[in-house]
Amino acid sequence: MTTQRKPPSNATRRNEASRRAILAAAFELVQEVGYAKLSIEGIAARAGVGKQTIYRWWPSKGAVLFDAFLMLSEQPDGGESALPDTGDLEADLKAVLRATVEELNDPRYDEPMRALNTEITHDPALAALYAERLDGPMRELKKGRLRSAQRAGQLAEDLDLDVAVDMIWGPLLNRWLQRAGGLTPGYADSVVETALNGLRPRR
Amino acid sequence: MTTQRKPPSNATRRNEASRRAILAAAFELVQEVGYAKLSIEGIAARAGVGKQTIYRWWPSKGAVLFDAFLMLSEQPDGGESALPDTGDLEADLKAVLRATVEELNDPRYDEPMRALNTEITHDPALAALYAERLDGPMRELKKGRLRSAQRAGQLAEDLDLDVAVDMIWGPLLNRWLQRAGGLTPGYADSVVETALNGLRPRR
């Protein structure tokens, strides 16, 4: 980094601390009481701030929860995270999908993630925001890893990378949302192998 | 059919007519007012029955809506529907997925299907019922079609048919739930081709 930044003022630091306290409180509270019973009042009380502080920054509890997810996805150093690239695509994808399975099975994330997905399902504006701020950047990372494999001749030249991403990550998310079967490391491996090899016999 | 059935009594016929009127009313009403504002009172008024008639048969509005979906999936002759099997697996799957795309884009189904999916996401008991009564039988039909192709040597011998079903149908449902991109006939075709051929180069 060559640009010099002015050190943040005390007021900026205090605002940032409040913002983080509010987002952490929202994330904790939705786990405990569920999304239906989550309220701005409850978040304010848990974060030790006034209700009006929250309303100054966010229009709704959905917006607060969304930013809580954004905070979780931020890297501590402000940099971009990337998917592992050891050169072995199959092993890298299995590692990533196994980590996703672990996250989806983590009780701390269960209720907040279901709430976020429900809000997206019913709210086109939030869906657009989600696509732009959370899913979009994540999708670019996934496509970046696939593109590197494609350049190495490990993936078909004419592959539509968006369809490929849907095919690798879609089944896990679906199974989790619909509670349609066990989400195990073995399932993650099987999805990766089946997506790479395809359903037809390989000759 | 060789079994003889007793003709239904007038009371049975009346009950069946009320049941169908209630389910049709619930399905219509959720399109108009959304799931959050759907109420047993509203369904009763629309169907022209008393509230207590509905409560006698269903514990909640979610249960009514679920049965409305079951009614939609029933065949008029009480038989099992099957997926098309012309011998050309790729063409058959494309036809089925294109029909699914059309259904998911139909404004009449949009709100009821989003409501059902939301309820399943948050309610493990309803998810179990859904798996048993709706998704399970549908999944068997899909696996039946794939099994027939597998026997014909068109699919890999060691293919896990559950993973295959997730890979073909998962991306569409996901894209629809997350509003994550256009749901077009071209997308349906691309999913089928990519799933069958796999992501790797085919030599």
Structural features, described:
Chains A, B: This is TetR/AcrR family transcriptional regulator. Chains A, B: InterPro entries: Homeodomain-like_sf (IPR009057), HTH-type_TetR-like_transc_reg (IPR050109), HTH_TetR (IPR001647), Tet_transcr_reg_TetR-rel_C_sf (IPR036271), TetR_C (IPR011075). Chains A, B: Keywords: DNA-binding, Transcription, Transcription regulation. Chains A, B: GO terms for molecular function: DNA-binding transcription factor activity; transcription cis-regulatory region binding. Chains A, B: It holds the Pfam family TetR_N. The structure is a homodimer. By secondary structure, chain A is an all-alpha fold. The first copy, chain A, folds into two domains: about 10-75, Arc Repressor Mutant, subunit A; about 90-195, Tetracycline Repressor, domain 2 (Orthogonal Bundle), CATH 1.10.357.10. Helices cover about 70% and strands about 0% of the residues of chain A. Chain A contains nine helices and no strands. In chain A, helix 2 crosses helix 3 (about 50-55) and helix 4 (about 60-75) runs parallel beside helix 7 (about 125-150). Chain A is elongated, with a radius of gyration of 20 Å. Chains A and B meet through helix 6, helix 7, helix 8 and helix 9 of A and helix 6, helix 7, helix 8 and helix 9 of B.
